């Protein structure tokens, strides 16, 4: 079972990555090729967070897996939007 502290740390990290990626997405959707480097970094961070969640779910109980699944869906949705916007 994953510890409460490790779950909290992962969710804090994922929420920070989501906020940053959403900001980069908003900036990139308004600008043409100006924010490419930050946008690419944000996409990479979203992918890494997605992979971290997958790894954590291997050691999680049923409730934790459900919470991780919800976070994974949020990351995946944003990742899909970013991929569609990617130039």
How would you explain this protein's 3D organization?
This protein has helices at residues 4-30, 36-57, 62-85. The longest helix is centred in the first third of the chain and has 27 residues, at 4-30. The protein is mostly helical and 87 residues long. The radius of gyration is 14 Å and the shape is elongated.
In summary, what is this structure?
This protein is mainly alpha-helical and 87 residues long. The chain contains three helices and no strands.
Order of helices and strands: HHH
* Low-confidence residue ranges: none
Portion in helices? over 70%
Number of helices: 3
> What spatial form do the alpha-carbon principal axes imply?
elongated
Number of strands: 0
What Rg do the Cα atoms give? 14 Å
Structure classification: mainly alpha
Produce the secondary structure layout.
Elements: H1 4-30, H2 36-57, H3 62-85
Characteristics of this structure?
single chain, 87 residues, 3 helices, 84% helix
């Amino acid at each position: 079972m994953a510890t409460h502290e490790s779950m909290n740390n992962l969710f804090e990290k994922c929420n920070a990555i989501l906020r940053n990626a959403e900001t980069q997405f908003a900036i990139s959707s308004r600008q043409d090729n100006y924010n490419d480097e930050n946008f690419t970094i944000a996409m990479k961070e979203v992918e890494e967070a997605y992979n971290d969640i997958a790894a954590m779910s291997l050691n999680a109980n049923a409730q934790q897996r459900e919470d991780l699944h919800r976070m994974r869906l949020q990351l995946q949705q944003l990742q899909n939007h970013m991929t569609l916007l990617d130039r």
